[in-house]
Amino acid sequence: MSQLETTTAASGQSTAAYDPNFCFPVRELESERVKLTPFIPDLHADLYFQGSAAYPDLYDFIPWETFTDTSDFVKQVIDSRVRPDTGVVLYAVIDKTRTSPSPFSSANFAGIIGYMNTSPANLSTEIGYAIILPPFQRTHVATNAIGLLLQYALDLPPHGLGLRRVQWKANRLNTKSIDAVQKLGFKLEAVLRWDRIFAGSKASATNGVKERVGDPRPGTVGTDTALLALCWDDWESERARILEVMDRRS
Fold first, then answer.
1. For 227, which DSSP code?
2. Model pLDDT for residues 23-53, shown as the tens digit of each residue
């Protein structure tokens, strides 16, 4: 496991070691315009909460609700989902093209992304927790963030992990997400019907089919999931094109 030194944004002084508890080495990933730095709650959690609080539609297609405050985000996501699972690591997405008074600020903090469902035994992972804040959407940020994770996962050691498969799941109705990764070479493999249950009534996510009488969880929304993947042999042929897309200026 890797331990990362946390620093205060104001002073830059080291405060404590933070263990991301991931099954592979965790390192910063960087292109010319975007940096992915391991998400450290003391440095990044408040930036995420402040940047996302005004945009509840960020969660239209995922089973999250708007968080009440920073500690609520840390409790529900970091402490409950990320830290306990050695197959998950979260990154803060930093837009290097934005002028910022410090390494991490609301001026350049663009969102979060990470690996999940990672299996060293099967040499596979999934890109998830991908939430780009609205001021950074429809820019170079998402393409570079996804590209950096692909590069680290699929390049052979010592520069990458040498994995064989990277998958992406999205609600079947989230066409923007599906289209974005297909442009990067992901292939649609299946639609998983009735894959997930959302509490409440998120009309944006539902498969439109009412549950049957007697369902054990009445009043919850059923969703269908698109499953896409980009594998090592796809990467061998697509790598140069994907890196070119990351560098594209328009």
1. E
2. 999 999 999 999 999 999 999 999 999 999 9
